[in-house]
Design goal:
The structure is a single chain. The chain is of the alpha/beta class. It contains 6 helices and 4 strands, in the order βαααβαβαβα. Strands 1-2-3-4 form a 4-stranded mixed β-sheet, with helices on one face. α5 (about 110-115) links the parallel β3 (about 95-105) and β4 (about 115-125). α5 packs parallel to α6. It is elongated and about 60 Å long. This is CopG family transcriptional regulator. InterPro entries: RHH_8, Ribbon_hlx_hlx. It comes from Roseomonas alba.
Length: about 140
């Protein structure tokens, strides 16, 4: 089975995952003031910058944790051919990804259950709703 791991880099207009956060009024006011004074283009720009700064601040601890936990870092795609090859070899996959894991749209829930023993994603999983439902009891 071929390994398709790519390091993710922030890119404008790229695919993103929407999150919702709650902020206090004073924190939000500080962000708005910095946006108003031209330090950031908008609230999202401020929040993304703050997150990137914190991720960079803890980069070494993250690298150690990724290695210790055996995570694939970046983007990992599983095609139907990948899973069929694992099935033919009698292998069951333990998928561990920090970033984005994708399971091809043509993967059936039956093939996913037959080949994926466990799945732990820190980030996002893109798969059909049927495959996600079939793997729900295997997600950490």
């Amino acid at each position: 089975m071929t390994s398709t791991v790519h390091e993710l880099r922030p890119r404008p207009g790229g695919e993103t995952e929407k999150i919702t956060i709650n902020l206090g009024h004073v924190d939000l006011g500080h962000i708005d003031l910095l946006v108003q004074d031209g330090f950031y283009a908008n609230r999202t720009d401020f929040i993304r910058t703050a997150i990137r700064n914190q991720v960079e601040r803890h980069a070494e601890a993250t690298r150690q944790s990724v290695a210790r936990k055996g995570l694939d870092l970046g983007m990992r795609h599983f095609s139907r051919a990948d899973l069929e090859a694992a099935q033919a070899a009698g292998q069951r996959l333990d998928i561990r990804v920090l970033g984005l894991a994708t399971i091809a749209r043509d993967v059936s829930p039956e093939l996913a259950r037959a080949t994926i023993a466990s799945i732990a994603i820190l980030g996002a999983l893109q798969a059909s709703p049927e495959v996600k439902a079939a793997l729900a009891d295997r997600m950490a």
